[in-house]
Specification:
This protein has a domain of 213 residues. Helices cover 75% and strands 0% of the residues. It contains 15 helices and no strands. It starts with a helix and ends with a helix.
Length: 306
């Protein structure tokens, strides 16, 4: 294989694998903030399990969306790739990579469970995460073609990613994480819509049943803002009712959450005034949610180091 083909195959794995790790870190850091001990070996092995799974999902989505991605406009966060359409000879290699990566992720999950004497629910958690990554676009489920795309993205970009980090450090998924994950799910739902908005025309031609396809861009912008606003309200409620004992200051986190909420409102306003600005405002709204995750990571690190 020459270097050009190698680069193309690497590009086909183009996904938010590194960005997704921001949410994995959130789970790890939240577990540490509420009192779990840090274990570097658990952290690293857990990171590998999640990273490989997310990478496999990127290859899977590119592989099974080849027929429609050739018509899409590629952006920093969406649009797929036309590489497989231009180089169908890569398909056997990509299939092998997909099987290898998912297999490796689950094998490492099994090894983690055995080495650290974790409950079998951890291994089940790894299998479920890989199952959703595969089933998003791959047959026979093809969940995004059956109206479950937002649910899978929301679950994967929040509960499963952060839950993996939390499970790795805490040894279980318990009540504190369930409460902590609610605003993350709301952020994940908004992300799913922002990722789908630029692809509405292509997704409709490809018969994907996304919320954006079934409604319109305007409705999706509005629902995204509502979702971001509800996340802010969650953090405020956690602060007022002191849901977590000895946890971080959720009023501070609520203030941080005004970043994506404010950008979401600004994006909706600009889109309504000038629909041609859609790509620009979607990009900024998506970046603002990633920025929120970064700020949360930094804030938790600050709490642990002070």
């Amino acid at each position: 294989m020459d270097f050009h083909n190698f680069v193309n195959i690497v590009k086909l794995g183009r996904s938010l694998a590194h960005a997704a790790m921001l949410v994995y870190f959130l789970g790890v850091l939240f577990a540490l903030v509420i009192g779990s001990p840090f274990d570097i070996y658990k952290f690293v092995l857990g990171y590998l399990i999640v990273f490989i799974s997310v990478l496999a999902t990127g290859y899977t989505n590119n592989y099974y969306d080849t027929a429609i991605d050739k018509y899409a406009t590629q952006t920093a966060f969406s649009g797929g790739s036309s590489i497989l359409h231009q180089h169908p000879e890569y398909q056997p290699t990509i299939r092998s990579i997909i099987v290898f990566l998912y297999g490796l992720s689950m094998l490492l999950g099994f090894a983690f469970t055995m080495v650290f004497s974790y409950p079998w629910t951890f291994f089940a958690f790894v299998i479920i995460a890989n199952f959703f990554g595969w089933g998003y676009t791959a047959p026979p489920l093809k969940l995004v073609y059956k109206g479950f795309g937002e649910f899978v993205t929301m679950l994967g970009a929040s509960f499963l990613l952060a839950g993996s980090g939390y499970f790795v450090m805490r040894g279980t998924i318990d009540g504190p994480f369930v409460w902590f994950s609610i605003p993350l799910l709301l952020f994940g739902f908004a992300v799913s819509l922002y990722l789908e908005i630029p692809d509405r025309t292509v997704d409709r031609q490809g018969h994907k049943m996304t919320l954006v396809v079934m409604t319109n861009e305007r409705f999706s912008f509005i629902i995204s803002v509502i979702s971001l606003g509800l996340a802010t309200l969650c953090y405020m409620a956690y602060s007022v009712f002191q849901v977590f004992e000895g946890a971080p200051n959720f009023l501070v986190i609520a203030v941080f959450s005004f970043i994506p909420f404010g950008v979401g409102v600004w994006s909706l306003r600009n889109y309504l005034i000038d629909p041609a600005s859609m790509m620009r405002v979607v990009f900024r709204a998506t970046v603002s949610i990633f920025l929120m995750w970064i700020v949360l990571d930094v804030y938790f690190v600050y709490i642990l180091l002070r």
